[in-house]
Design goal:
This is diguanylate cyclase. InterPro entries: CheY-like_superfamily (IPR011006), Diguanylate_Cyclase (IPR050469), GGDEF_dom (IPR000160), Nucleotide_cyclase (IPR029787), Rev_trsase/Diguanyl_cyclase (IPR043128). Its EC number is 2.7.7.65. The chain is α/β, with parallel strands linked by helices. The protein has three domains: about 5-110, 3-Layer(aba) Sandwich (Rossmann fold); about 160-285, Response regulator (Rossmann fold); about 300-450, Alpha-Beta Plaits, CATH 3.30.70. It contains 16 helices and 17 strands. The strands form four sheets. Strands 2-1-3-4-5 form a five-stranded parallel sheet, sandwiched between helices. Helix 6 crosses helix 12 (about 310-330), helix 7 packs across helix 11 and helix 13 (about 340-350) runs antiparallel to helix 14. The longest helix has 28 residues, at about 110-140.
Length: about 450
């Protein structure tokens, strides 16, 4: 079965199982509990994307920090995330714990849904770490020099205060005031009470995150996030949804709308800082992934017209992705996009117009996919998008949104003419057996849906 694997480490088996019970698991997430004595052999096996150590009352801070420091070497090699889950308020603030090398510290979770939101972010960070290493390894076979592929495995994150836009949907509620105080104390915040006015502020640039505070009904905030994701320039901007009762949220609906993380409005400034720190890492990793091949001059790696990966490099990368995900039992989805009327545009306006269209499409697609997703130009009008560690349902939401973004774009040509696009798309989820060529071939056999 294709699923993310999480290891929860406790003092003994009973303690570990109690901690694991606080983590929401589903068909696509396997949570295993392990006592302290068995933790390191299991964690260093490379089978887990996330290792969560319960810190606080049962396991002392000194023991937890020793575990983290001993694990630094193999966590980097395996692309695994190491997390401390605190069991009391004082543990989270302990300086030794904060300096121990944990990738994240989850502070006293109030509900499994909140933990589920944090874990989704951390699993995505784990995916991006592996993707960075995979792109670097794949590129070595296509270039005589290492070039920009010798970049560090993970970029350095600036230590400045996060710059955020706080959009309030129910600003009169007391819990919203509490959240506002936490935001002001740890960020450089612009606060807006009018969602419509907030849309213009989103384009000012320099934002690390958007915080949506819905103290009564989160429906408006979720719709706001969904509309954000339809704008290419805002597609990858992290979004935190804060609401009093996170237990009432349907995480699939929330995440499919484009929300990155969820949190209760009673969050303290220290707890909010943890969320924002991981957001900054998401942004930095995605930026690093985005430039892994786009600046490369060799055409075998990069398609000069669209900026996508070239056919050979893209297929080799897909094969490498399938191999890695087979070892970790992770899902992979691939989508095929076709510009249905490209031949008509070439015939009516000339091939230079077709080049203009493909450049514009390349720009929009690269801005409308995550950094860890890879777009490849398979042929003249065919584009392949790889979604590593992504379920079919989530990839389906992403590719439909992408197709509709492209459909609504009018591309201006020389002479005052403009053209609209007809976009066809197909989607397939890897069955764990097919190789890259078979998987891409399966897209051709599927019925093409046309965004309309």
């Amino acid at each position: 079965m294709q699923a993310n694997r999480i290891l929860v480490v406790g003092k003994d088996e009973a303690h570990a199982k109690a901690g694991a019970a606080r983590i929401t698991s589903d068909t696509f997430t396997q949570v295993q509990a392990a006592p302290w004595t068995e933790a390191i052999p299991l964690a260093s096996s490379g089978r887990y994307q996330l290792v969560i150590v319960l810190a606080g009352s049962e396991i002392g801070i000194a023991a937890v920090t020793t575990f983290a420091r001993s694990a630094e070497r193999w966590t980097q090699r395996e692309g695994m995330m190491l997390v401390a889950l605190t069991e009391d308020g004082t543990a989270a603030l302990h300086r030794d714990l904060q300096r121990a090398g944990f990738d994240d510290i989850i502070h006293r979770p109030m509900h499994p849904t909140q933990v589920g939101g944090r874990i989704s972010v951390l699993l995505r960070l784990s995916t991006m770490r592996r993707e960075l290493a995979r792109r670097q390894a794949t590129a070595r076979g296509f270039t005589s020099g290492d070039g920009l592929f010798l970049a560090p495995a993970e970029p350095v994150i600036a230590s400045r205060r996060a710059s955020v836009l706080l959009v309030q949907f129910d600003q009169s509620a007391h819990c919203a005031e509490q959240f506002n105080r936490a935001v002001r104390s740890c960020t450089e915040a612009t606060i807006c009470d009018d969602p419509e006015a907030a849309r213009s502020l989103l384009y000012r640039g320099g934002l690390d995150a958007v915080l949506l505070c819905a103290a009564v009904d989160p429906k408006g905030a979720i719709e706001f996030a969904d509309r954000m994701r339809r704008v290419p320039a805002l597609y990858n901007l992290p979004v935190l949804l804060a609401t009093p009762d996170v237990s009432q949220l349907d995480l699939d609906t929330v995440f499919n709308a484009g929300v990155t993380d969820v949190a209760p409005t009673c969050l303290s400034s220290e707890q909010l800082s943890v969320h924002l720190a991981s957001f900054k890492r998401l942004e930095a990793l995605r930026a690093a992934l985005a430039v892994r091949y786009t600046q490369h001059v060799e055409m075998v790696i990069r398609d000069g017209l669209t900026g996508f990966a070239g056919h050979g490099f893209g297929m080799a990368h897909l094969q490498s992705t399938l191999h890695d995900c087979a070892e970790l039992s992770l899902p992979v989805a691939v989508a095929g996009l076709t510009i249905e009327n490209l031949d008509e545009i070439n015939a009516e306006h000339g091939y230079l117009a077709g080049d203009v269209v493909m450049r514009r499409i390349g720009d929009m697609v690269r801005r409308c996919i995550r950094g860890e997703d890879m777009a490849t130009r398979l042929s003249g009008s065919r584009i392949l998008v790889q979604f590593p560690d992504t379920r079919y349902a989530n990839a389906n939401v992403a590719v439909r949104r992408l197709a509709n973004v492209l459909r609504f774009q009018k591309i201006d040509l020389r002479g005052g003419a403009s053209v609209a696009l007809r976009i066809g798309y197909t989607l397939a989820c890897w069955d764990g057996k097919a190789d890259a060529r078979m998987l891409v071939a399966s897209l051709k056999a599927r019925k093409v849906a046309v965004a309309a």
